[in-house]
Design goal:
Length: about 110
């Protein structure tokens, strides 16, 4: 039976410049580990960052008061590639299709 040593590092993954293992420093928050990983990448979603707890497997939102522990994973997601006019076009297309169906049903029931 192989029992691995306790991991004294934090894994930083997702949309950071240099994802990987960062040596654990007592009392540091998630921002320290993201900065050690090169900072946020250009397509990162800052507010969506989460911590995956090593001891429980639970995802928690990052905050200044949220402590990072050895073995935890700090995850930075990427932005959803959305554009205003694409969303408007999609909404108008769905609305026009729904209106066409409604008009068709009204004509059939006359």
């Amino acid at each position: 039976i192989y029992i691995p040593k306790k991991l004294n590092a934090v894994w930083v993954s997702g949309q950071v410049r240099r994802p990987g293992l960062i040596e654990y420093k007592e009392g540091q928050d998630y921002r320290y580990y993201i900065n050690q990983a090169g900072g946020y990448a250009s397509n990162s979603l800052y507010r969506g960052s989460r911590i995956l707890r090593a001891n429980s497997g639970n995802w928690v939102k990052v905050s200044k008061s949220q402590r990072v522990m050895p073995g935890d994973t700090v995850f930075v997601p990427d932005k959803i590639d959305r554009h205003f006019w694409t969303d408007v076009k999609d909404i108008v297309t769905v609305a026009a299709s729904a209106l066409t169906i409604i008009i068709g049903i009204q004509n059939l029931t006359r």
